[in-house]
Write a structure and sequence with these properties.
By secondary structure, the chain is an alpha+beta fold. α1 crosses α2 (about 65-80). It contains five helices and three strands. A three-stranded mixed beta sheet has the order 1-2-3. The longest helix is centred in the first third of the chain and has 19 residues, at about 15-30. It is about 40% helix and about 15% strand.
Length: about 160
Amino acid sequence: MIRVSEAVLPGHPDKLCDFVAESIVQAALAVDGEAYAQIEAAIWCDQLWLSGGYAARGAALDVERIAVEALDSIARAANPDAKRDPWRVTNAVCRYDVDPTIWTRHVNDQAIVIGWAGYDDKVQYLPPEHFLALEFRTALWGRARAGSSRAAGRTAS
């Protein structure tokens, strides 16, 4: 059996896409506390792709506006004066006109739980491959933020 794990650095597009998708899910829950949503987002340059679906009683969501506002909030946090071209959004999110509780009370495919008996605090009770991926990410990000002291100490010859 091949076992793998990943951990992405801050600023990775996966983090941005997760934020966009979560913003849409939270908007659905704001409309209906029992809303059901499965949203995916992908991004490349100025293009944003949205897919999935949601069921919520109440007003329909303006999915594109929510997504663009989420992206703009990150851009403003990084540089409040930044000017950018508009996002090109491909929206394939479906609104299901059903009672969302048919899913929210029975389905939760976002969590797969597996017991890892036998691991200890040396690996923070995680599978070794995931512990190592997280440790590598932490070390890599720390080094990236600190800069390369070797490169900084070089002089031109």
